[in-house]
Design a protein that fits this description.
The protein is mostly helical. The protein has two domains: about 60 residues, Orthogonal Bundle (Arc Repressor Mutant, subunit A); about 110 residues, no CATH class. The longest helix is centred in the N-terminal third of the chain and has 27 residues. The protein is elongated, with a radius of gyration of 19 Å.
């Protein structure tokens, strides 16, 4: 194996171990030593490749929301499509959960979460709702993140107990309003 391939393999092993450790322990409890042990390398190597725990987390937390192409969704079905996608996506991704848990207490993780939503959700919403797209995307994010926090992190009984379809039924109308509705003046 060449040096470059060995370096890439080491980096990949560190990132895989970091994703698992952050998902399992959360940002605050995950340590560089534990990540290095999981990757079967010296902790100094983690620091050599990533410089700090925050930088490692930011790299490990690279992920796609994998939003559907909303331009192909009928306007009256946008809320339901995003609600279903959000519930399905968060149900299956521990990296997203680790990022959310960390974002609540860690400024670097919170910034990473903002970057991901701005770079991925903002443009998707702008395609279907160009007027006030940033505001609409932000409001969609409040609902999705609030739901996820309530269901998966806090485990609020009525929300955590809902099945997927019931959850989508409740969330979809609010997202629909944020995407296609108008603001009411008070």
């Amino acid at each position: 194996m060449t040096g470059a391939r060995r370096s890439d393999a080491t980096k990949d092993a560190i990132l895989a171990a970091a994703r698992e450790r952050f998902a399992h322990d959360g940002y605050d409890r995950a340590t560089i030593r534990a990540i290095a042990r999981d990757a079967d390398i010296d902790p100094a190597m983690v620091m050599r490749y990533f410089g700090s725990k925050e930088k490692l987390f930011a790299t490990a937390a690279e992920f796609e929301l994998r939003l559907p192409d909303l331009a192909e969704v009928p306007p009256e079905a946008l809320g339901r499509r995003i609600a279903a996608h959000a519930v399905d996506r968060w149900d299956r991704d521990e990296t997203l959960m680790a990022l959310l848990r960390a974002a609540v207490t860690n400024p670097a993780a919170a910034e990473r979460m903002r970057e991901i939503f701005a770079a991925q959700l903002g443009p998707a919403v702008a395609k279907v709702a160009p007027d006030e797209a940033a505001t609409r995307a932000g409001l969609v994010a409040t609902q999705v993140l609030g739901l996820v926090l309530s269901r998966y992190v806090l485990g609020l009984p009525p929300i955590a107990a809902m099945d997927r379809d019931e959850l989508v039924d409740w969330l979809a109308p609010t997202l629909q309003r944020y995407l296609t509705g108008t603001r009411t003046a008070g």
